């Protein structure tokens, strides 16, 4: 045997292979695909057998851990394959067809990762007493801008690149218009969250897409203060991310809130120490919030001398990208089963 070091697949490659094996196993739908799986993965020239054969050539220091991983991977799939319910058919053959045996599994649908995150956010706020409200995707200029204190020709309108359908109808650029619709329908105390899809005329890239999803929140009552905003969002973050999550509140600007803030949560991956996801800062920017502007309360026919409130907006894609470590927002919209099956 030569002394030259042989190429050992690093741990990350074994992880990737194991994921591939799982995907291939899950894709088995009939006897032909089962046989294809057996040949490609478990057969004499199959990937897992190949890895087993590599063990003896691995440098001594790495042999033990490499061997253990490879053996485990191989045994797992050999066992999974041998004990799959549809194997019964193979042994008995078509002639001995037994209708009582379990069939090939049908591929099952599952929730889209964005809907999973939306549901988690919704369930936490519902458990805190918030109700859920919805508004239309096609909005009027009034609800999307005017009533939210974006006057006509005000430069703040440029914060959101808008798809105009007509001069006065737009694809909503945020879920904040549902705040106004909710105020029109309900009297305080109002405690609502408003999930939905929003649209922006932005250049498509790994980080931004022409549509995405938000969850808006609104709480209006007598004596609602900034402390309530902070307490509510801290309670939410601790349930959603981690029991000890910390928040960082930074001043910001939105026309519909005064004061306005942006809230960062302590990075849930590195616990604030700094990693590639939080760009070494220890913090992740996750939502905008603030105290509802008196003009916005007026648009909703609520007397700002009597009532105050807070509002917030959470971007679902942003949280999903962070939570699942996904690098490109476009994956969420391509409906590629290889991506979706992982959730
Ligand atoms: N509508 C804002 C946006 O899309 C997000 C937002 C910020 C919503 C602050 C709020 C808020 O309710 O108070 O950028």
Structure description:
The chain is an alpha+beta fold. It has 2 domains: 11-90; 113-340, BirA Bifunctional Protein, domain 2, CATH 3.30.930.10. The protein contains 13 helices and 9 strands. It has helices at residues 11-26, 31-42, 47-54, 60-83, 87-92, 113-127, 141-144, 177-185, 226-240, 294-299, 316-324, 331-334, 337-340; strands at 131-132, 138-140, 169-171, 190-199, 211-221, 247-254, 257-266, 283-292, 308-315. The strands form 2 sheets. A 7-stranded mixed sheet has the order 1-4-5-9-8-7-6, sandwiched between helices. Strands 2-3 form a two-stranded antiparallel sheet. Helix 1 (11-26) packs parallel to helix 4 (60-83), helix 3 runs antiparallel to helix 4 (60-83) and helix 6 (113-127) crosses helix 11. The radius of gyration is 27 Å and the shape is elongated. 3,4-dihydroxyphenylalanine binds next to strand 8 and strand 9.
- Helix amount: 25-40%
Q: Could you say how many structural domains there are in total?
A: 2
Terminal CA distance = 44 Å
What is the count of helical runs? 13
CATH architecture label name of the largest domain: 2-Layer Sandwich
Give the distinct bound molecules. Answer: 3,4-dihydroxyphenylalanine
Strand order of the largest sheet: 1-4-5-9-8-7-6
- What does the radius of gyration come to? 27 Å
Shape: elongated
Q: Which residues form runs of ≥5 with pLDDT under 50? A: 1-6
Mean pLDDT comes to 89
Structural class: alpha+beta
CATH C-level category of the largest domain: Alpha Beta
Q: From N to C, what is the helix and strand string? A: HHHHHHEEHEHEEHEEEHEHHH
> Which homologous superfamily in CATH is the superfamily of the largest domain?
Bira Bifunctional Protein, Domain 2
- Percentage of β-strand residues: 15-25%
CATH topology of the largest domain: BirA Bifunctional Protein, domain 2
